[in-house]
C-alpha cells in the first residue's frame, strides 16, 4: 500500500465529540505506523475537522479542486455520463452548448452534475417517455442545487 485515501471525511463531524477524537487518534496512529501518505477527501467541513487536531493539521495540506469548465475534458466527462445511463436513445450531452448549460446549472462540480443528470435520466424514463436526456428532460428534472454553507456560489470546493 502506497497511500491511504479516506473519502467523505466530513462525515467525521456527524459523530459525538468523543468518537471524533477517537477517530482522529486512529488517523494519527495509522500515519505513524504505516508511514504512508494519508489523503482525506471531502467538503470544507473535512478540512475543519482535521484542523481541530493540532497534530493532524500539519499532516494534511488542503487542496481545492477547481470547478469544471466547458472544455474538451468536461465534454469527455459528459459523454461518459451519457453512456452510463440505461436510456434507449443516446443523449447528446457533449455538445458545447449542452456543456455550458450543464456546468452552469451544476456550478461546475461533479457531484452536482451527477445529481442533475441522474434526475434528468429519471425524468426521461418516468415522465417524458422519450428515454433520452434533452433540454425537456433537464427542465423536468427534480433537481435543486445544494449550497455549501460559507462557500460562495461558483467557488471551488475544498477537498
Characterise this structure.
This protein is mostly helical and 159 residues long. The chain contains seven helices and four strands. Strands 1-2 form a two-stranded parallel sheet. A two-stranded antiparallel ribbon has the order 3-4. Helix 1 links the parallel strand 1 (4-6) and strand 2. The longest helix is centred in the C-terminal third of the chain and has 19 residues, at 110-128. The chain starts with a strand and ends with a strand. Mean pLDDT is 87; it is low at 148-159.
Concise structural overview:
With 159 residues, this protein is mainly alpha-helical. Helices cover 49% and strands 6% of the residues.
Helical segment tally?
7
Helix percentage: 40-55%
Overall shape: it is elongated
How many DSSP E strands? Answer: 4
Structural class: mainly alpha
Q: Return Rg in Å.
A: 19 Å
pLDDT < 50 runs, ≥5 residues = 148-159
For the record, give the distance between the C-alpha atoms at the N and C termini, rounded to a whole number.
Answer: 22 Å
Oligomer: single chain
Order of neighbouring strands in the sheet with most strands: 1-2
Element order: H for helix, E for strand: EHEHHEHHHHE
Amino acid at each position: 500500500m502506497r497511500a491511504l485515501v479516506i473519502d467523505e471525511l466530513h462525515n467525521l463531524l456527524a459523530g459525538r465529540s468523543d468518537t471524533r477524537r477517537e477517530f482522529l487518534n486512529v488517523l494519527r496512529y495509522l500515519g505513524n505506523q504505516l508511514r504512508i501518505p494519508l489523503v482525506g477527501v471531502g467538503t470544507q467541513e473535512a478540512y475543519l475537522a482535521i484542523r481541530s487536531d493540532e497534530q493532524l493539521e500539519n499532516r494534511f495540506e488542503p487542496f481545492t479542486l477547481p470547478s469544471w469548465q466547458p472544455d474538451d475534458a468536461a465534454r469527455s466527462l459528459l459523454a461518459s455520463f451519457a453512456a452510463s445511463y440505461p436510456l434507449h436513445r443516446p443523449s447528446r450531452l457533449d455538445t458545447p452548448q449542452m456543456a455550458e448549460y450543464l456546468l452552469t446549472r451544476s456550478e461546475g462540480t461533479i457531484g452536482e452534475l451527477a445529481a442533475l443528470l441522474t434526475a434528468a435520466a429519471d425524468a426521461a424514463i418516468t415522465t417524458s417517455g422519450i428515454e433520452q436526456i434533452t433540454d425537456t428532460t433537464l427542465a423536468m428534472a427534480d433537481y435543486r442545487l445544494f449550497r455549501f454553507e460559507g462557500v460562495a456560489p461558483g467557488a471551488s470546493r475544498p477537498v
